[in-house]
Write a structure and sequence with these properties.
Layout (H helix, E strand, L loop, with lengths): L2 H21 L16 H26 L6 H15 L1 H10 L4 H29 L4 H6 L3 H16 L4 H16 L3 H9 L1
Helix pairs in contact: 1-2, 1-3, 1-4, 2-4, 2-8, 3-5, 4-5, 5-7, 5-8, 7-8
Length: 192
């Protein structure tokens, strides 16, 4: 199987995830600027989750470009990633509706962290399938950025019972870290 079908299926699932998240934003009944204050937590949680899902979509796209073939292990590792990503709309909704309360913030971090773990597993399965000298393996290198992200999510989850605002700053910082394209990956994708 080539990676095009896997990428197309994943793109469709990610598009649905984003659509579900946006449906959770309800317009206020009143028509004043003040009325928007009631929806800002839901909107802010949507924006943060949209960025995270967009980062996974972008990185998944690059990873598939550097992959030469797909096998059953890769398919299941990809489904594992999609499973965790499909939980993001639920945790995003609860986070925004709770006004960033401790337990929803903690669960939000768990869902994002598990997306990171699942992505790492998919990446590892692909590299194991295609060899340590594959384009993906060479592009990833030691993957300090990926490993530090998982540590960051764990830190955010542990801090949230004490101060969920710090957790939200951690989750936002992790998103900001990934918004900057990785020049190693970009260089290898251009070579394909």
């Amino acid at each position: 199987m080539n990676n095009g079908r896997l990428e197309a299926f994943s793109d469709g699932v990610l598009a649905i995830i984003i659509t579900i998240m946006v449906f959770d934003i309800k317009a206020p009944e009143l028509t004043s600027w003040q009325a928007l204050k009631s929806v800002w937590p839901v909107f802010l949680s949507f924006v943060l989750s949209f960025i995270h899902v967009g980062i996974y979509w972008n990185n998944h796209h690059h990873m598939m470009k550097l992959s030469t073939r797909v096998n059953g292990s890769i398919l299941w590792a990809n489904m594992h990633l999609l499973f965790w990503l499909t939980l993001v709309p639920f945790t995003t909704s609860w986070l925004g509706r709770s006004n960033f309360a401790a337990i929803p913030t903690q669960l939000y971090g768990v869902s994002l962290g598990m997306c990171g773990v699942a992505y790492w597993i998919l990446q590892t399965v692909i590299i194991r399938s295609q060899g340590t000298n594959s384009l993906l393996a060479r592009a990833i290198g030691n993957d300090l950025k990926g490993r530090s992200s998982i540590v960051g999510y764990v830190l955010g989850v542990l801090v949230s019972p004490y101060d969920s605002r710090i957790s939200m700053v951690i989750y936002a910082a992790l998103a900001a870290m990934w918004l900057i394209p990785d020049p190693r990956i970009e260089r290898f994708v251009e070579e394909c």
